[in-house]
Structure prediction request, 352 residues.
Amino acid sequence: MTVRNFGKFTLRFRPYTLELRHVFTVSTASRTTTPAVLAELEFEGVTGYGEAAMPPYLGESEASVLKFLNQVDFSGFDDPFLTADILHYIDGIAPKNTAAKAAIDIALHDLLGKIMNRPWHRIWGFNPASTPYTSYTIGIDTAEMVRQKVREAAPYKLLKVKLGLDTDKMMIETIREVTDKPLCADVNQGWRHREEALEMAHWLSERGVVFLEQPMPKEQVDDNAWLTENSPIPTVADEAVQRLSDVRKAFGVYNGINIKLMKCTGMREAHQMVELARALDMKVMLGCMTETSCAISAAAQLAPIVDWADLDGALLIGNDAFQGMEVVDGKITLPNRPGIGAVPLSAAHQTQ
Ligand code: MG
Prediction:
Protein backbone atom coordinates (compact mmCIF):
# COMPACT_ATOMS: atom_id res chain seq x y z
CA MET A 1 0.00 0.00 0.00
CA THR A 2 1.40 3.37 -1.04
CA VAL A 3 0.35 6.19 1.30
CA ARG A 4 0.63 9.83 0.22
CA ASN A 5 -0.28 12.64 2.61
CA PHE A 6 -1.23 16.12 1.39
CA GLY A 7 -2.51 18.47 4.06
CA LYS A 8 -6.16 17.52 4.57
CA PHE A 9 -6.23 14.71 1.97
CA THR A 10 -4.56 11.32 2.14
CA LEU A 11 -4.36 9.12 -0.98
CA ARG A 12 -3.64 5.41 -0.60
CA PHE A 13 -3.40 2.80 -3.37
CA ARG A 14 -2.22 -0.74 -4.07
CA PRO A 15 -2.22 -3.16 -7.01
CA TYR A 16 -4.83 -5.92 -6.96
CA THR A 17 -4.96 -8.70 -9.56
CA LEU A 18 -8.50 -9.72 -10.55
CA GLU A 19 -8.78 -13.46 -11.13
CA LEU A 20 -11.31 -14.38 -13.78
CA ARG A 21 -13.60 -17.36 -13.18
CA HIS A 22 -13.36 -18.43 -16.84
CA VAL A 23 -10.78 -17.79 -19.55
CA PHE A 24 -12.33 -14.76 -21.21
CA THR A 25 -12.22 -14.64 -25.01
CA VAL A 26 -13.38 -11.80 -27.22
CA SER A 27 -12.69 -11.40 -30.92
CA THR A 28 -9.24 -9.91 -30.25
CA ALA A 29 -7.72 -11.85 -27.30
CA SER A 30 -8.00 -14.31 -24.37
CA ARG A 31 -6.96 -13.81 -20.76
CA THR A 32 -7.35 -15.21 -17.19
CA THR A 33 -6.52 -12.15 -15.04
CA THR A 34 -6.98 -8.39 -15.19
CA PRO A 35 -4.66 -5.99 -13.36
CA ALA A 36 -6.37 -3.44 -11.12
CA VAL A 37 -5.37 -0.80 -8.58
CA LEU A 38 -7.53 -0.11 -5.51
CA ALA A 39 -7.41 3.45 -4.18
CA GLU A 40 -8.62 5.26 -1.06
CA LEU A 41 -9.04 8.99 -0.60
CA GLU A 42 -9.36 10.20 2.99
CA PHE A 43 -10.48 13.62 4.18
CA GLU A 44 -11.01 14.50 7.86
CA GLY A 45 -11.40 10.86 8.87
CA VAL A 46 -13.83 9.89 6.07
CA THR A 47 -12.55 7.42 3.44
CA GLY A 48 -13.79 7.04 -0.13
CA TYR A 49 -12.94 3.97 -2.19
CA GLY A 50 -11.96 3.94 -5.84
CA GLU A 51 -10.60 1.53 -8.41
CA ALA A 52 -8.79 1.41 -11.71
CA ALA A 53 -9.18 -1.77 -13.82
CA MET A 54 -6.87 -2.15 -16.80
CA PRO A 55 -7.80 -4.67 -19.49
CA PRO A 56 -4.67 -4.74 -21.69
CA TYR A 57 -6.32 -3.56 -24.93
CA LEU A 58 -7.00 -0.10 -23.47
CA GLY A 59 -3.31 0.70 -23.09
CA GLU A 60 -3.07 1.19 -19.33
CA SER A 61 -1.15 -1.11 -17.00
CA GLU A 62 -0.46 -1.50 -13.31
CA ALA A 63 2.77 0.46 -13.84
CA SER A 64 1.09 3.33 -15.71
CA VAL A 65 -1.67 3.68 -13.09
CA LEU A 66 0.81 3.64 -10.20
CA LYS A 67 2.91 6.23 -12.03
CA PHE A 68 -0.13 8.44 -12.57
CA LEU A 69 -1.32 8.15 -8.95
CA ASN A 70 2.20 9.04 -7.80
CA GLN A 71 1.93 12.27 -9.81
CA VAL A 72 -1.39 13.30 -8.22
CA ASP A 73 -0.94 16.15 -5.75
CA PHE A 74 -3.86 17.20 -3.56
CA SER A 75 -1.87 19.79 -1.62
CA GLY A 76 -3.51 22.62 -3.61
CA PHE A 77 -6.98 21.57 -2.40
CA ASP A 78 -8.60 21.72 1.01
CA ASP A 79 -12.29 21.29 0.04
CA PRO A 80 -13.47 17.94 -1.44
CA PHE A 81 -16.68 19.60 -2.72
CA LEU A 82 -14.70 21.49 -5.37
CA THR A 83 -15.11 18.45 -7.63
CA ALA A 84 -15.08 20.45 -10.86
CA ASP A 85 -11.72 21.99 -9.95
CA ILE A 86 -10.23 18.79 -8.55
CA LEU A 87 -11.24 16.57 -11.47
CA HIS A 88 -10.24 19.20 -14.02
CA TYR A 89 -6.81 19.22 -12.38
CA ILE A 90 -6.66 15.38 -12.38
CA ASP A 91 -7.62 15.23 -16.06
CA GLY A 92 -4.86 17.71 -16.91
CA ILE A 93 -2.03 15.80 -15.24
CA ALA A 94 -1.48 13.68 -18.38
CA PRO A 95 -3.52 12.70 -21.44
CA LYS A 96 -5.36 9.34 -21.56
CA ASN A 97 -4.86 7.39 -18.26
CA THR A 98 -8.65 7.16 -18.04
CA ALA A 99 -8.74 4.24 -15.59
CA ALA A 100 -6.23 5.93 -13.27
CA LYS A 101 -8.37 9.09 -13.39
CA ALA A 102 -11.48 7.01 -12.69
CA ALA A 103 -9.86 5.63 -9.52
CA ILE A 104 -9.60 9.20 -8.17
CA ASP A 105 -13.05 10.25 -9.46
CA ILE A 106 -14.77 7.23 -7.86
CA ALA A 107 -12.94 7.65 -4.53
CA LEU A 108 -13.82 11.37 -4.50
CA HIS A 109 -17.50 10.68 -5.22
CA ASP A 110 -17.58 7.98 -2.55
CA LEU A 111 -15.98 10.38 -0.07
CA LEU A 112 -18.48 13.16 -0.85
CA GLY A 113 -21.48 10.84 -0.68
CA LYS A 114 -20.31 9.69 2.73
CA ILE A 115 -19.84 13.28 3.93
CA MET A 116 -23.40 14.05 2.69
CA ASN A 117 -24.59 10.69 4.05
CA ARG A 118 -26.48 9.89 0.82
CA PRO A 119 -25.97 7.40 -2.01
CA TRP A 120 -25.10 9.03 -5.34
CA HIS A 121 -28.26 7.84 -7.09
CA ARG A 122 -30.18 9.80 -4.40
CA ILE A 123 -27.98 12.89 -4.74
CA TRP A 124 -28.58 12.80 -8.50
CA GLY A 125 -32.32 12.30 -7.94
CA PHE A 126 -32.68 8.86 -9.58
CA ASN A 127 -35.24 6.26 -8.57
CA PRO A 128 -33.46 3.09 -7.39
CA ALA A 129 -36.55 1.06 -8.37
CA SER A 130 -35.99 2.02 -12.03
CA THR A 131 -32.79 0.03 -12.55
CA PRO A 132 -32.67 -2.31 -15.57
CA TYR A 133 -31.75 -5.98 -15.66
CA THR A 134 -28.05 -6.56 -16.14
CA SER A 135 -26.85 -8.78 -18.94
CA TYR A 136 -24.45 -11.61 -18.21
CA THR A 137 -21.59 -12.10 -20.65
CA ILE A 138 -20.94 -15.34 -22.50
CA GLY A 139 -17.44 -15.21 -24.02
CA ILE A 140 -16.47 -17.01 -27.22
CA ASP A 141 -15.94 -20.67 -26.38
CA THR A 142 -16.60 -24.27 -27.39
CA ALA A 143 -20.22 -25.41 -27.68
CA GLU A 144 -19.89 -27.46 -24.49
CA MET A 145 -18.54 -24.53 -22.47
CA VAL A 146 -21.15 -22.18 -23.93
CA ARG A 147 -23.93 -24.53 -22.78
CA GLN A 148 -22.37 -24.69 -19.31
CA LYS A 149 -22.05 -20.89 -19.07
CA VAL A 150 -25.65 -20.40 -20.19
CA ARG A 151 -26.80 -22.77 -17.44
CA GLU A 152 -24.67 -20.85 -14.90
CA ALA A 153 -26.40 -17.67 -16.10
CA ALA A 154 -29.81 -19.02 -15.02
CA PRO A 155 -30.61 -16.00 -12.75
CA TYR A 156 -30.05 -13.47 -15.55
CA LYS A 157 -32.83 -12.28 -17.85
CA LEU A 158 -30.57 -10.99 -20.62
CA LEU A 159 -27.41 -12.61 -21.98
CA LYS A 160 -24.62 -10.78 -23.79
CA VAL A 161 -22.90 -12.89 -26.41
CA LYS A 162 -19.44 -12.12 -27.67
CA LEU A 163 -19.26 -12.49 -31.46
CA GLY A 164 -16.81 -11.49 -34.18
CA LEU A 165 -15.02 -14.74 -35.01
CA ASP A 166 -16.09 -17.38 -37.54
CA THR A 167 -18.05 -19.17 -34.79
CA ASP A 168 -20.84 -16.58 -34.53
CA LYS A 169 -23.70 -18.74 -35.80
CA MET A 170 -22.50 -21.72 -33.72
CA MET A 171 -22.49 -19.52 -30.58
CA ILE A 172 -26.07 -18.33 -31.13
CA GLU A 173 -27.41 -21.73 -32.20
CA THR A 174 -25.79 -23.36 -29.16
CA ILE A 175 -27.31 -20.79 -26.80
CA ARG A 176 -30.70 -21.24 -28.46
CA GLU A 177 -30.52 -25.02 -27.73
CA VAL A 178 -30.49 -24.11 -24.02
CA THR A 179 -32.53 -20.92 -23.61
CA ASP A 180 -34.93 -18.53 -25.36
CA LYS A 181 -33.91 -15.51 -23.23
CA PRO A 182 -33.31 -12.22 -25.06
CA LEU A 183 -29.70 -11.76 -26.15
CA CYS A 184 -27.50 -8.84 -27.02
CA ALA A 185 -24.48 -9.31 -29.25
CA ASP A 186 -21.08 -7.64 -28.86
CA VAL A 187 -18.99 -8.02 -31.99
CA ASN A 188 -15.99 -6.03 -30.65
CA GLN A 189 -15.31 -4.65 -34.17
CA GLY A 190 -15.01 -8.20 -35.48
CA TRP A 191 -16.98 -7.82 -38.73
CA ARG A 192 -15.38 -6.18 -41.77
CA HIS A 193 -17.99 -5.98 -44.56
CA ARG A 194 -21.19 -4.04 -44.20
CA GLU A 195 -23.34 -6.30 -46.39
CA GLU A 196 -22.30 -9.32 -44.32
CA ALA A 197 -22.90 -7.32 -41.14
CA LEU A 198 -26.42 -6.44 -42.29
CA GLU A 199 -27.13 -10.05 -43.19
CA MET A 200 -25.95 -11.08 -39.71
CA ALA A 201 -28.04 -8.33 -38.08
CA HIS A 202 -31.17 -9.80 -39.73
CA TRP A 203 -30.14 -13.35 -38.83
CA LEU A 204 -29.53 -12.31 -35.20
CA SER A 205 -32.73 -10.27 -35.00
CA GLU A 206 -34.73 -13.33 -36.09
CA ARG A 207 -33.12 -15.23 -33.21
CA GLY A 208 -34.03 -12.78 -30.44
CA VAL A 209 -30.94 -10.55 -30.39
CA VAL A 210 -32.13 -7.10 -29.25
CA PHE A 211 -29.10 -4.93 -30.05
CA LEU A 212 -25.69 -5.05 -31.67
CA GLU A 213 -22.60 -3.62 -30.01
CA GLN A 214 -19.68 -2.26 -32.07
CA PRO A 215 -20.32 -4.38 -35.17
CA MET A 216 -17.41 -3.13 -37.29
CA PRO A 217 -14.08 -1.37 -36.61
CA LYS A 218 -14.62 2.13 -35.27
CA GLU A 219 -12.57 3.56 -38.17
CA GLN A 220 -15.24 2.31 -40.65
CA VAL A 221 -17.51 5.24 -39.84
CA ASP A 222 -19.50 5.17 -43.10
CA ASP A 223 -20.02 1.40 -42.90
CA ASN A 224 -21.23 1.58 -39.29
CA ALA A 225 -23.57 4.47 -40.19
CA TRP A 226 -24.93 2.52 -43.19
CA LEU A 227 -25.52 -0.54 -41.01
CA THR A 228 -27.29 1.58 -38.37
CA GLU A 229 -29.51 3.06 -41.10
CA ASN A 230 -30.52 -0.37 -42.37
CA SER A 231 -30.29 -2.69 -39.36
CA PRO A 232 -33.50 -4.15 -37.91
CA ILE A 233 -31.98 -3.84 -34.40
CA PRO A 234 -30.21 -0.85 -32.76
CA THR A 235 -26.43 -0.48 -32.91
CA VAL A 236 -24.39 0.64 -29.90
CA ALA A 237 -20.90 2.18 -30.01
CA ASP A 238 -18.39 0.85 -27.52
CA GLU A 239 -14.81 1.03 -28.84
CA ALA A 240 -15.85 4.13 -30.87
CA VAL A 241 -16.83 6.09 -27.76
CA GLN A 242 -14.59 6.66 -24.80
CA ARG A 243 -15.22 10.16 -23.48
CA LEU A 244 -17.79 12.94 -23.58
CA SER A 245 -16.29 14.48 -26.72
CA ASP A 246 -16.82 11.19 -28.60
CA VAL A 247 -20.61 11.21 -28.13
CA ARG A 248 -21.09 13.88 -30.78
CA LYS A 249 -19.05 11.80 -33.25
CA ALA A 250 -21.18 8.72 -32.59
CA PHE A 251 -24.40 10.62 -33.30
CA GLY A 252 -25.72 9.52 -36.70
CA VAL A 253 -23.30 6.59 -36.81
CA TYR A 254 -24.79 4.42 -34.04
CA ASN A 255 -28.15 4.36 -32.26
CA GLY A 256 -26.56 4.33 -28.82
CA ILE A 257 -23.38 4.45 -26.75
CA ASN A 258 -21.84 2.12 -24.18
CA ILE A 259 -20.50 4.16 -21.25
CA LYS A 260 -17.82 2.66 -19.02
CA LEU A 261 -16.20 4.44 -16.08
CA MET A 262 -12.75 3.11 -17.01
CA LYS A 263 -12.99 4.65 -20.49
CA CYS A 264 -14.48 8.01 -19.53
CA THR A 265 -12.53 8.93 -16.32
CA GLY A 266 -15.34 8.17 -13.88
CA MET A 267 -18.77 9.07 -12.54
CA ARG A 268 -18.73 12.79 -13.30
CA GLU A 269 -18.08 12.44 -17.02
CA ALA A 270 -20.26 9.31 -17.28
CA HIS A 271 -23.20 11.33 -15.97
CA GLN A 272 -22.48 14.09 -18.49
CA MET A 273 -22.35 11.50 -21.29
CA VAL A 274 -25.76 10.10 -20.35
CA GLU A 275 -27.24 13.60 -20.41
CA LEU A 276 -25.70 14.44 -23.79
CA ALA A 277 -26.75 11.13 -25.36
CA ARG A 278 -30.32 11.69 -24.10
CA ALA A 279 -30.35 15.18 -25.57
CA LEU A 280 -29.36 13.60 -28.91
CA ASP A 281 -32.12 10.97 -28.52
CA MET A 282 -29.56 8.17 -28.39
CA LYS A 283 -29.80 4.92 -26.46
CA VAL A 284 -27.54 4.49 -23.43
CA MET A 285 -25.89 1.35 -22.22
CA LEU A 286 -23.82 1.19 -19.05
CA GLY A 287 -20.93 -1.25 -19.29
CA CYS A 288 -17.86 -2.24 -17.33
CA MET A 289 -14.53 -4.02 -17.45
CA THR A 290 -13.77 -6.92 -15.14
CA GLU A 291 -13.83 -4.89 -11.94
CA THR A 292 -14.50 -5.42 -8.25
CA SER A 293 -17.83 -4.38 -6.73
CA CYS A 294 -16.18 -1.02 -5.97
CA ALA A 295 -16.15 0.34 -9.52
CA ILE A 296 -19.27 -1.66 -10.41
CA SER A 297 -21.24 -0.06 -7.56
CA ALA A 298 -20.03 3.37 -8.67
CA ALA A 299 -21.27 2.77 -12.23
CA ALA A 300 -24.52 1.30 -10.93
CA GLN A 301 -25.45 4.67 -9.40
CA LEU A 302 -26.33 5.71 -12.97
CA ALA A 303 -28.28 2.53 -13.74
CA PRO A 304 -31.76 4.01 -13.10
CA ILE A 305 -31.43 6.30 -16.14
CA VAL A 306 -29.97 3.94 -18.77
CA ASP A 307 -31.65 1.60 -21.27
CA TRP A 308 -29.37 -1.38 -20.81
CA ALA A 309 -26.80 -2.35 -18.21
CA ASP A 310 -23.95 -4.76 -18.56
CA LEU A 311 -22.55 -4.63 -15.05
CA ASP A 312 -21.48 -8.23 -14.57
CA GLY A 313 -17.78 -7.42 -14.10
CA ALA A 314 -17.61 -8.37 -10.44
CA LEU A 315 -19.54 -11.60 -11.07
CA LEU A 316 -16.89 -12.74 -13.54
CA ILE A 317 -14.06 -12.60 -10.95
CA GLY A 318 -13.32 -15.02 -8.12
CA ASN A 319 -11.71 -12.55 -5.71
CA ASP A 320 -14.05 -9.58 -5.31
CA ALA A 321 -12.70 -7.19 -2.66
CA PHE A 322 -15.98 -5.36 -1.95
CA GLN A 323 -19.62 -5.91 -1.22
CA GLY A 324 -21.82 -3.49 -3.13
CA MET A 325 -24.35 -3.52 -5.95
CA GLU A 326 -26.09 -6.86 -6.07
CA VAL A 327 -27.91 -8.59 -8.86
CA VAL A 328 -31.24 -9.90 -7.54
CA ASP A 329 -33.23 -12.02 -10.02
CA GLY A 330 -31.16 -10.45 -12.79
CA LYS A 331 -31.98 -6.88 -11.72
CA ILE A 332 -29.45 -4.31 -10.55
CA THR A 333 -30.16 -3.66 -6.88
CA LEU A 334 -28.56 -0.56 -5.42
CA PRO A 335 -27.43 -0.68 -1.81
CA ASN A 336 -28.97 2.06 0.32
CA ARG A 337 -25.56 3.12 1.62
CA PRO A 338 -23.89 6.52 1.27
CA GLY A 339 -21.46 7.28 -1.53
CA ILE A 340 -21.03 4.44 -4.03
CA GLY A 341 -22.34 1.93 -1.49
CA ALA A 342 -19.32 -0.40 -1.61
CA VAL A 343 -17.94 -1.89 1.60
CA PRO A 344 -14.51 -3.56 1.65
CA LEU A 345 -14.59 -7.27 2.41
CA SER A 346 -12.23 -7.38 5.36
CA ALA A 347 -10.66 -10.72 4.42
CA ALA A 348 -9.83 -9.45 0.95
CA HIS A 349 -8.85 -6.02 2.15
CA GLN A 350 -5.63 -6.46 4.15
CA THR A 351 -4.20 -2.95 4.14
CA GLN A 352 -0.54 -3.95 4.07
MG1 MG B 1 -18.21 -4.05 -25.90
Observations:
- Residues 347-352 have pLDDT under 50 and may be disordered.
- Residues 98-116 form the longest helix (19 residues).
- Residues 8 and 79 are 9 Å apart (CA to CA).
